[in-house]
Structure formats: structure tokens, C-alpha cells
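ok posting inputs for the calcium ion job
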Amino acid sequence: MRPLFNAFLATSLFALSACGKADVAASEVDATTPAAQKNATPQNKAKTTLGGTNGLSVAIGDAPAAPINYTLAELATGLVHPSSIAFLPSGEILLAERDGRLRLVRDNTLIEAPISGLPEIHVQRQAGLHDVVLHPNFSENNLIYFSYSHGIARKNATRLARAKLVMNDTSAALEDLEVLFTRIPWSDTSHHYGGRIAFLSDGTLLLTVGEASRYKEKAVQLDNHYGKVVRLNDDGSIPADNPFIGQEGVMPEIYSYGHRNAQGLIITADDTVISHEHGPKGGDEVNIVRAGANYGWPVITYGVDYSGAVISPYSERDGMEQSIVHYEPSIAPSGFTMYNGEMFPDWQGDLFIGALAHKHVRRINVIDDGSFGAQEELFGELDARIRDVRTGPDGAIYFVTDSQSGSLYRASAK
Ligand SMILES: [Ca+2]
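and the output
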């Protein structure tokens, strides 16, 4: 039997939010989930309001280590800053390396030759190859979408492209490369690209675009792409129903704004969009992303600058969305999945976030009413920065570690 704490926590969060105060640190609690709360399918959960409150952001600190109910297998190693994992219907795994390579894992073996045909990629500091995802109809069209840093140190941008993946027995290549989006204006920093890609059920896609760090004030201005989530048709054209279409001086690709550097993006079965973003010190956020909404960076934040200096006196303002939770201290989130496999029944519908700085995967227990319950830390025994985490088609959890010699791991049930 599991303790009843989560029911208490969920109730408390509702109550605290209702009276305008929410400052519960997960480190104060030791929580797992009552079995009775875990019997819904993820589809049922997705129909509820994720986060469960319209109140203020909940501060989350360190979380207890999860019980080790899994076995870890290292499927590939020697990866240079692997940044993204994608699963092909034929069983292979695509891996992006930030250093500007796409790799293929077949039968648990890393194919030596990188996939050919990538465009030239700006690789420096945080710049490089960021994300790779399949087109929803990949089985028919073999299209993959990937985001990367384009340009040179003095003049560069987040860019989105697509290409056809052509595989044979010993190698693979990209053909028919098309550039779909380039962040405007150019930047002269090599920081904060965002770059996570996900498809909505209508076939359009969302891309997170970072604010280049030095230009954070642009995130709440609508005449540029910095600090935005943008929405595009699968061919890169602009959907006619984007929220700011027809407004003079506003970039028509914008879906939401006031973001900092989002390296996690999920779209659930019912098209709920959830992102997380790196905040300043103590200000990492999980947000439910809505069309046309302003997420406030840098006008509102729960964090302070890395030096400790105040960035803004405000953590809430009218017209600006509250995050669902924020991390204090920051965990440096990258990679995001809503678990929808059969292998770990207790984790159905829960959220998993890779943590670079805190070197674990953070599980957010999602209660059946959609509210967020307690959190716990997984895979901390590796003592590794985790850059991406995904649910595999086999129900195992896959993740990559971020280093000069990073690895792909699979966590399967014990
Ligand atoms: Ca925010």
C-alpha cells in the first residue's frame, strides 16, 4: 500500500491556490500515490485540466529518490552531447548529437557512420543540433523534422528544417532538405536556442524558440521570434488560424510568448500543450501553453539572476500566465515525456523531465483530476546530466546523458 499523502498534497495545492498562496516545497514531503488514484488511462487524464489550478505557481525543491523498480541498460555510448531521441517505426532509434550529427541505433548497436545530408550547423557553446522528430505520417513520407543553430558566432539563429530519411543496411542519408523556419532577427550570442518540436493533432507543429539570453526583453515583444513558441504547417507555411494573424507588426508564426529557453515540449492526446523552460536561478518553469498567451519572461519570474541580482520585482502580473510549478533551486530542465506505456502501470500519465544540473529525471505524479502531485527523482545513481527523456514504443523509458561521451539508456521494469 502506498501512503495517502498525495491526496493530501493535491487537496492542499487546490486550497493554497484558491487563497492565492502556493509555496509547497516537495522536499518537505515524502509522497507516493495511492493505488486508487492511478487507475485512469492517460487518455482520461489528458481530458482533465493539467496542473489542476489557476492559482500561483507552486515552488518545488529537491524531491525524494524513487524506489529502484527498473533495470538500466546502456544501449549506446561515445555520443557527443546527445540532445534528442526519436523512435522509427522499423525499430531503429534516431539520436541527435549537439555537435551536429544524426546517428542511428539498430538492434541495440550504434551505427558508426553518422546519417549524411545534414545542413551546415553552427556548433559552439549551446549552439548545435537540438531536436529531431518524425512527421506524424512518417510511415508514408519518411520525413523527419529537426532544429539546429544556423549561421556563425556573430550572426546565427534557431532554424527548423525537414528532410526525407533514406535508410539502407549499413547507412542512412537525408534527401530533399527544406528549411522551414529561421528565427528573426539574427543573434550574436550562442545561447538559448530552445528548439523542441512537437506536432498537434491537426498536423501543424510547434517549435520552441529561445531568447538568445542577451535579448530577453524581446521575449514579450511580438515583432520578433525570441522567447516564443511558434506554430507552422508541416511545410513551413503559416496556419491561417494562428492567434496573431493579421496584426500589424506582429510575427504571424507566434503561438505564445514571454518564454525564456524551453527545452521540453509535450502535446497530449487531447492537444494540451505542456512545456518547461530554463529560468534564471530558481525560476525554471512548467507551463500549460495556450494560443496567444504571454508567459511573462522577463517581466515576471520567480527566479533571480545567476549573480543573485533581481531581474524583476514581479512574479505575477495581469495578462501574464502563471507557470504550474517552478523549481527552486533550478534543476535545469531538458527533455520531457508524458509516460503512456504499459511497462510501468503506476507511471501512466505522469510527466518526466530530464534535469541537467541536478542529474536526475524528475517524475511529476499526475493525479487523475489532472492536478500535479508529488515529485520524485529517478536515475540519480548515474550522476549524469540528462538532456532528453522519452517513452519508447516498448513502454520502456529512454534517456540520453549530456557529455563529451554521452550515452543512451533504456530503463525497463525489473
Ligand atoms: Ca513564465
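notes: The longest helix spans residues 5-18. Confidence is low (pLDDT under 50) at residues 1-48.
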